[in-house]
Amino acid sequence: MPAFLEVQNLVKSFGSNTVVKGVNFAFDKGEFISLLGPSGCGKTTILRMIAGFERPTSGAIRVDGDDITHLKPNQRKLGMVFQAYALFPNMTVGENIAFGLKIAGMPADQRRARVDEMLKLIGLPGFEKRYPYEMSGGQQQRVALARAIAPKPRLLLLDEPLSALDAKIRVSLREEIRAIQRDLGITTVFVTHDQEEAMSISDRIVVMNAGNIEQLGAAHDIYNRPATRFVATFVGQLNTLPAGLLPGATGERAIRPELISLAPRPETDLTLTGTIADLHFLGSVQRLRVDVGGTLLNIDTFNNQTKPLQRGDTVTLHLAQKDLLTLGA
Amino acid sequence: MKSQKFWAWLVFALGAAYFIIPLAATFEFSLRMRRGEYSFDAYASVFSDPQFAASFTYSVIVGLFTIVVGILVVVPAVYFVRLRMPWLRPFMEFVTLLPLVIPALVLVYGYIRLYGSSSLIPFTGSVFGTNILLTCAYVTLAMPYMYRAVDNGMRTIDIGTLTEAAQIMGANQLQIIGKIILPNILVAILSGAFLTFAIVIGEFTIASLLNRPAFGPYLVGIGTNRAYEPAALAIISFIITWGAMGMINVLGRFAPRTSARTD
Amino acid sequence: MSASNTKRRIPWDSLAVFPFVLFAVMFLFLPTLSLLSAAFTDRAGNFTFENIAGLFTDQILAAYWISIRVSGASALLGALCGLAITLAIIRGKLPAALRSAVMTFSGVASNFAGVPLAFAFIATLGRLGLATIVIRTLFGFDIYRQGGFNLFSFWGLTLTYLYFQIPLMMLTIAPAIDGLKKEWNEAAQTLGASTWQFWRYIGFPILWPSVLGTLSLLFANAFGAIATAWALTGSNLNIVTVLLYNQIRGDALQNPGLGAALAVGMILITSLANVIYLVVAARAERWMK
Is the pLDDT confidence value at A324 over 90? Predict the structure, then answer.
């Protein structure tokens, strides 16, 4: 089966500054894809090239076999949700959602039915007469989502749609977006700088840095088998163990904080001894900072009621050889 | 994309032509006083006219008084209304809108009727009184601009917090206004001042109806009697206006920026 | 609440606002009220509608009518041209340096009114003006004799007023255009809208209240203007401000009640322009906070 969304050798330069340096990827219909990376890595530029707001310096973008590289944005049949909602302030919720349908020439009664259907889908039935200013940020963003998907676009583009929202709404809305996306089976490209967000929501993640793809894969692969030093450090927390700290290790190794424990486990085959330099109680998790011969290691352990730890305690750390990461370039 | 840029340039070029051609034509005309060659004779003639100096000086002085009185009337009012009497704001907005709605000609007619020599406050009964009335009329005329400039200035510096901070450190009301508020909105006040100056300097209607020897009526007199001097005077006036506006622009660079809190 | 307490507290607040209120009363409210009462009072001091009735002569009605036409035309054209130029500069991808230069110039031009402006247009489009002569020598077309143009006419005055109306529009509408978010345009595009459809359904409806507000400001601005017209046409063009000016100088009508009625009529018309704006804007601004 040919790929549904395909990007080939995509390059974008602004003057002498190349922000996207020959990017390739291909995704299947119905996939939820995240473009993840720090600001300035080129992820937003790629999304804007897919949407048609930026013209690629070279390369091609295909959707469902059609080359859309040179189409105008209004000919691409895509839906997009922006960071700052971007609802049309002069239109009611209903008029906002119906806008794409009206432009496409759908008759008024069908439009009304589709708006009702959309409002039900996003859990805001009866809101069609409200104006955007009368709604909370989370509600506005759900309306923006409904507006984007109402005309049944081939592709849904989400440009950091959760960044402007409160932490709690951010989590609930991202779950809602994912559920709606799965329901409709709509291929979605999601841009974010938040690795937790990307991992929780995506089928596959494209980790980007400085205009290049560092790694492309499922969340599980990227977290457990980071391909590059950048991916390992950008996605999740990581402890670096300098050469010589571990008996028998020839070079530098790294390990995730949750893979070090204070008690032996069946798979652990290495031990280190250190003193607790600092500890933070985070509820379900206790985060320790342990000084092992001058190297500070972060360790996450589950809350343990029987043994309250204190600064200065000497502890034995247990870890498994197979969990150690060797960081490449 | 291409065509959009083309239209933008076209519109801009047409607009630029409309605004530049009269200036160029006026300048060209002002140089034609001497037959057969360009000269600055018209300008020399203007500057050597004692009436030019007299009327211009008169307008500058009235302008300066207008600015001082305008500041004294507007700044404390805006400060205290913003700080203590926000319910008065709609009233102030309404008052400062009035001079834009009621023509100056109508206002001055009212003044003449109300403050004539036989009235309770006979402003027009003496030269000195008429000068005061002219100044007050100009303050009223410039009120919308002065108010907006000062109000914008006070909005950007968050006077409420500044005042509270000064009070906690033990400053009294006069010290707060003189040492904290004024220096911070100085740029805004000066912007309002230069705008006031630009409005007052060539004002014709009120000065002429109050029979004061100001620059505006002088200009009209020259216009009816001479050929080339009016063009020279138009150029001079344009340069004066440009100077006042240029000062506002330069001052804008020294304006305090909004505090770090953005929105 | 003791007496000594009230004594010690200087009522700064009211003291500071007092001059402002005094100015408003002495130089805005009282003069207006005095004209209003004079307009309805006869020479003997009795209430009368005679002064108002006196406005309905051919000469005075014609003066009002030409004032309304000049103000309306210069406000409409000024708003239209000002909007077009501002859009070209802000949204037309012209160099950014151009924008600040144009806005500074607008500040100057919007204040370059009155007598000098009239001189400038006489030097340009008068019978001996540079543009008049250039057009005649280049194209052999006399805009006065063949084109029927006259600077001292309705169109001449309108064209001159545009010199301060357009920049005033640009200065007041620029912040509103800046307020149009780039994302609105992009969202409309992804939903299939053309540039024209964006402006028709989103851009212009959002700008409309600001345009309307500026329109009423421009109208009042032109309606009350006299210096330009006076220096340009003398008493050639009988606009209502010139009529009232002559009345105040005592050259013409010699009837104070009629003068007051003229003035009240002017206030009525500019207020009406504002009321129309407020009503239409309230309808157009339902979506605003």
Answer: no
pLDDT in the model for residue A215: 93
Residue C250 included in any domain: yes
- What is the rounded average pLDDT of the residues A235-254? 80
Q: Is residue C79 part of a domain?
A: yes
Whether A89 sits inside 8 A of C189 (CB atoms) is no
| Architecture of the A5-233 domain | 3-Layer(aba) Sandwich (3.40)
* Rounded-to-integer distance, Cα A219 and Cα A197, Å: 11
Distance CA A238, CA A251 (A): 16
Give me the sheet containing A155-159, strands edge to edge: A78-81, A155-159, A187-192, A32-36, A204-209, A212-217
Question: ipTM, 2 decimals?
Answer: 0.86
Task: Write down the CATH number for the domain with range A239-323.
Answer: 2.40.50.100
- Number of residue pairs across A and C with CB atoms under 8 Å? 79
Interface subset of C 26-55, CB within 8 angstroms of B: 26-28, 30-32, 34-35, 38
SS3 content of chain A, % helix, strand, coil (to 5): 30, 30, 40
Structural domain boundaries enclosing C68: 57-284
> CA of C107: which chain B residue's CA is closest?
B245
pLDDT grade for B255, boundaries at 50, 70 and 90: low
**Is residue A218 a contact partner of residue A32, using CB atoms and an 8 Å limit?**
no
What is the pLDDT, as a whole number, of residue C7? 47
Q: Which of B204, B233, B250 to mutate to test the interface with C (most CBs of C within 10 A)?
A: B204
Q: Which CATH superfamily is domain B48-252 in?
A: MetI-like (1.10.3720.10)
Domain extent listing, chain B: 48-252
Residues C91 and C33 in one domain: no
At B129-167, the pLDDT tens digits run: 999 999 999 999 999 999 998 998 888 888 888 888 988
Question: Collapsing DSSP states into helix, strand and coil, what is residue A206?
Answer: strand
Q: Give strand ranges (E) for chain C.
A: none
pLDDT in tens, A183-242: 999 999 999 999 999 999 999 999 999 999 999 999 999 998 888 889 988 988 888 888
Asked if A73 lies within 8 A of C186 by C-beta distance, the reply is yes
